[in-house]
Amino acid sequence: MSTESENIITLYDIPTAKGAETWSPNVWRVRMTLNYKRLPYKTQWVEYPDIGKVGQEIGAKPTTPNPDGSGTLLWTCPMLVDPTHLDASGKPTVLSDSLVIVKYLDAVYPERKVIEDGTDALHAAWAAFIWQNLTGKIVNLVVPLCPNILSERSREYFVATREKWWGPLADMCPDRVKVWAEVQNGLDKIATALNANDFTLVAPLFWVSSIVGKDELDALESWNGGRWRKIMDLHQASGVLKIQ
């Protein structure tokens, strides 16, 4: 007889030395999606040296070529098993790669979508922008420090594999002050892009408000808990609408 815990989604995550703590940004992406969608799930914690074995056991696909040039493939976390939706062979759905998992969750559990229909290209462009201006810059800052939070087994595996791929971790970021300055500059660009996106959103709202009748405008302003009226009011108060 199956138990209730066997019939909910399982998320595979990497623990810290303290135990059940999420730290990987890729796993966070899926965990936040599950929580945002209010889906019941459980976590299976997997130490770094065991990820490949566990991935093969559950039938997950490897996600990336091994950077050591061996031609082999690597399994990574997150991985996810959904026993409530069966694949073509009648087995629980098994997925790997955070973006693949998020898209699956949006498709199968469409309430509270993370990536709205028809926005894949926009989402991909935004993700690339974030990588270029933030994530790609902090890799050299963060990776050398990751061993500090891992268990002894995972720490030894992490250091051995990463140094085989990239050389000594201590040499990844010789000038942290310089890289932090680059991160700050990247965040400035992201903030500017967010402001621009706000204007892209707000411009048609004000266009509508200047054209349609009161009843239609009142309806629009009431949607989503009055969110659009609040956004318009904030922009009105900021002075960006003044005419010179």
Automatic annotation (TrEMBL):
GO terms for molecular function: transferase activity. This is Glutathione S-transferase-like protein ustS. It comes from Hypsizygus marmoreus (White beech mushroom). Gene3D superfamilies: 1.20.1050.10, Glutaredoxin (3.40.30.10). Residues 14-113 form the GST N-terminal domain.
